[in-house]
Amino acid sequence: YPRLHTKKTQLSEFNQTEIKALLGSYTKVLFVRDPFHRLIATFLQGMGTSTSFSSFIQEVLDSGTHNSRTAWKPLVSQCRPCLIQYDYIVMFGFLRQELGHLLRQAGLPEGSLLAELTDSQVQWTYRWLSEQMFSELSAQQKKQLSHFYRWDLAAFPFSSSFLQS
């Protein structure tokens, strides 16, 4: 899309015609991750101020969807998958397989940009961490988290998510 002579940096700053032209000129890739895994990663990276996972989750729930930090904000509210027709949706946990396909579609050799990804180890680790951390939460917190991420869970196939009700 020809660059507009503007300082606009967010899609919402463009009109509908400009948005359609911009989006039509790019290959759109969305990377998604199970929301519970995102919460675990955020907690482990120390982005919450809480000392326990349960109190961190309460912090997330108390923030609400409009005031939540990007690290744990529902994906649907950030990426608008119902409004933007993404060409590819790549799920964390299947990166090697999906990125290989994406590279082939772009005409690049599959191994050219891929580091050695160990998806099966990552999946096993997050499964174990999820079990441990989910057990720390109260029934009320589990129910609230499922509600908090209900649109992400409906939009993306996180079939083994601990947040599925």
Automatic annotation (TrEMBL):
Record-level GO cellular component terms: Golgi membrane
Subcellular location: Golgi apparatus membrane
Keywords carried by this UniProt record: Carbohydrate metabolism, Glycoprotein, Golgi apparatus, Membrane, Signal-anchor, Transferase, Transmembrane, Transmembrane helix
Domain of life: Eukaryota
Class in the EC hierarchy, top level: transferase
GO biological process: carbohydrate biosynthetic process; dermatan sulfate proteoglycan metabolic process
Topology class, membrane: Single-pass type II membrane protein
Gene Ontology terms, MF aspect: sulfotransferase activity
Enzyme Commission no: 2.8.2.-
Membership in a protein family: Belongs to the sulfotransferase 2 family.
Protein name, per record: Carbohydrate sulfotransferase
Gene name as annotated: Chst9_2
